[in-house]
Design a protein that fits this description.
By secondary structure, the chain is an alpha/beta fold. The chain is built from 13 helices and 13 strands. The longest helix is centred in the last third of the chain and has 28 residues. It is globular, with a radius of gyration of 18 Å. Bound molecules: pseudouridine-5'-monophosphate and manganese (II) ion. Manganese (II) ion (MN) binds next to loops.
């Protein structure tokens, strides 16, 4: 385990890792750039609380003043959730510049996975995975989340990928990168706000222990360093209405075109359109799914440490 000058695990996280106790990494981009101010701080606290209730240690990750922090204090979480703090969105390739230049930012799935792995944390919960964007054949916009999963042995629990992406292409790339995709208690690959993307998932699992068995076999028996994706659908009681979802999606895609939004701004602009256009329904779904993912990730982390113990 590395705790370098510029990457520091909190005392609690470092101790848990050393003792082989379950830890769940959480990302900060969904807080800083995916949820509105105020609401984001409540979700941050709820995520950490549910991970603890399930018997694991939460490790929210962000870069603050040139130090990658694995496990944040309450004050540090306040800062991540404060829009005036101006934390930029950091993918994996942005880590060198912010660490080297002493700057701050919120980590995406890609950079959170990489930092979690660097301190020995192998389970991570998020909302939606980044993927292949629509039109990627000409824009080349494919999230670094996929490339990092290809080479980082971390379990990522998410609710699939948003329907603003090209979901069939995203599943193809995950296959190319040899990332196992396990749908949790469903046969369908989920689409973030919706439980069913219309595409079947490659594998179905029904318990955290089945996830743990798969992860341990994948890590120990299968050559390569790819991660494992667990796709856990949004809970039925907070799933978005499909017609409202489809309308907001059409409008959101038009908005991107008319404002010429590109690159790292695409995801935050679309999320904001859903939040303002759905009268809050998308926020309820977003919070519900990310909390559920944190719970499942904690169960998986506990099951992995029981099987390894
Ligand atoms: N999906 C969401 N909410 C988010 C993100 C994705 O529903 O906040 C964030 C995650 O941090 C993910 C990142 O890693 O967006 C992907 O961004 P990009 O497509 O620019 O790689
Ligand atoms: Mn992108």
């Amino acid at each position: 385990m590395v705790s370098s000058m510029r990457t520091r695990a909190s005392e609690e996280v470092a101790t848990a890792v050393r003792e082989g106790r379950p830890v769940v990494a959480l990302e900060s981009t969904l807080l800083a750039h995916g949820l509105p101010p105020g609401h984001n701080r409540k979700v941050a606290a709820r995520l950490e609380a549910v991970v603890r209730e399930r018997g694991a240690v939460p490790a929210t990750i962000a870069v603050l003043d040139g130090v990658a922090r694995i496990g944040l204090s309450d004050d540090e979480l306040d800062r991540v959730c404060d829009p005036d703090a101006g934390l930029v969105k950091l993918s994996q390739r942005d880590l060198g510049p912010v660490l080297g230049l002493g700057l701050s930012g919120a980590t995406t799935v890609a950079s959170t996975c990489a930092l979690a792995h660097s301190v020995g944390v192998g389970v991570f919960a998020t909302g939606g995975l980044g993927g292949v964007h629509r039109g990627a054949a000409t824009s080349w916009d494919v999230s670094a989340d996929l490339g990092v999963l290809a080479g980082t042995p971390v379990v990522v629990v998410c609710s699939g990928v948003k329907s603003v992406l090209d979901i069939p292409a995203t599943l193809e790339v995950l296959e190319t990168y040899s990332v196992p995709v396990l749908a949790y208690r469903t046969d369908a690959f989920p689409a973030f706000y919706l439980r069913d993307s219309g595409l079947p998932a490659p594998w179905r699992v029904d318990t955290a222990d089945q996830v743990a068995a798969t992860v341990l076999a994948h890590r120990t028996e299968v050559p390569g360093d790819s991660g494992v994706l667990v796709a856990n659908p949004v809970p039925s009681d907070v799933e978005m209405d499909r017609d409202l979802h489809d309308r907001l999606l059409r409008e959101g895609l038009d908005l991107l075109r008319s404002r010429d939004v590109r690159g790292k701004d695409v995801t935050p602009v679309l999320l904001e359109h859903f939040h303002s256009g759905s009268g809050g329904a998308s926020l309820v779904a977003n919070e519900g799914l990310v909390v559920h993912n944190a719970e499942v990730a904690a169960d998986v982390a506990v099951a992995i440490s029981e099987r390894s113990g």
